[in-house]
Design goal:
There is one protein chain. This protein is an alpha/beta fold and about 290 residues long. The chain has one domain: Metallo-dependent phosphatases (Purple Acid Phosphatase, chain A, domain 2, 4-Layer Sandwich), CATH 3.60.21.10. Strand 4 and strand 5 form a beta hairpin. The protein starts with a strand and ends with a helix. About 40% of the residues are buried. The model has no long low-confidence stretch (mean pLDDT about 95).
């Protein structure tokens, strides 16, 4: 049996520290679990698309996690694919370059215990950027090379909300055309599992023979009307041959923050627009951030 830790949507910031205490609790709880790797599935930041300081802060936070850490970008890190939830923060080459500079690769492959884990940048699908084609070619090669292995795809956004033929545009999931293309590619391999975050909700169900697992947020509770579990936390994933077992971990003291209340019930549209409220950092963290910004 191989155990994986999956964290998602911590929304860290050196200027808006709403969720820093949650991060410390999650980080320390994850460190007490023996795992083969830790996946951090997007939205590391609040204002990552436009802030070097936020990306540096997130990178420093990741360095405090033990063992092999596999991060992926979310829309609050590199921007959204069009049409997006904010036209001022759509994915582009400069935002991808910021991720590359501070975090590293935006896709990865990790093989363990009869499984191939493939992490991809969800915001590239439907973006029209050159890196979208590069990622598609990489994914095709990785899927072709996974013969005999079970495949788990990890990405920030879910492919869909309720069913694979959803056509109405939504900021909650992938668009119809790129979704269909991706599902066609995945059908050529032994794809068993798709893991996503983004919606700050825990959901676990099988659709058309593939298990779709939504990971809760470390930062604030889901505010959508889905009949699922919106409470904050993180997941462990145990791989034992064909058997995949999940568990929700909710450290004592973790707060499922109400995003609407934080944004003062409509006074602020985005967290980045709010007055600064920096997190309380230890001296070692502060020094590391100062060195990273030089």
């Amino acid at each position: 049996m191989t155990r994986i830790i999956i964290l998602s949507d911590p929304h860290l910031s050196p200027t808006h520290g709403f969720f820093w205490e949650n991060w410390l609790l999650v980080r320390d709880a994850a460190a007490r679990i023996e795992a083969a790797c830790t996946i951090v599935n997007g939205d590391l930041c609040i204002d990552g698309p436009d802030s070097d300081a936020e990306m540096a802060f997130a990178a420093e936070a990741l360095r405090a996690l033990p063992g092999t850490v596999l991060p992926l970008p979310g829309n609050h890190d590199v921007g959204d694919e069009p049409p997006g939830q904010d036209v001022r923060q759509l994915i582009d080459e400069s935002r991808l370059a910021r991720w590359d500079r501070f975090i590293g690769a935006d896709r990865w492959r990790h093989d363990l215990d009869g499984w191939t884990l493939l992490g991809v940048n969800a915001q590239l699908f439907g973006s029209g950027l050159a890196r979208e084609t590069e990622q598609t070619d990489w994914l095709d090669a990785a899927l072709a090379d996974s013969r005999g292995q079970r495949v788990a795809l990890v990405l920030h956004k879910p492919l869909f909300i309720e069913h694979a033929n959803e056509a109405d545009p939504t900021i909650g999931s992938m668009g119809l055309a790129p979704r269909r293309d991706l599902m066609r590619r995945l059908a050529g391999a032994d794809t068993r599992l798709i893991v996503s975050g983004h919606l700050h909700t825990r959901r676990d169900r099988v659709v058309e023979g593939i298990r779709h697992l939504w990971v809760p947020s470390c930062a604030f509770a889901g505010s959508h009307s889905y009949p699922d579990d919106p409470a904050c936390g993180f997941l462990t994933l145990d791989l034992d041959g064909d058997t995949v077992t999940t568990a929700a971990i909710r450290p004592e003291g973790l707060v499922s923050h109400d995003l609407a209340a934080i944004k003062q019930h409509g006074r602020y549209k985005f967290l980045r627009e709010m007055p600064p409220c920096p997190p309380e950092l230890g001296s070692a963290t502060q020094l590391a951030l100062e060195q990273a910004s030089r």
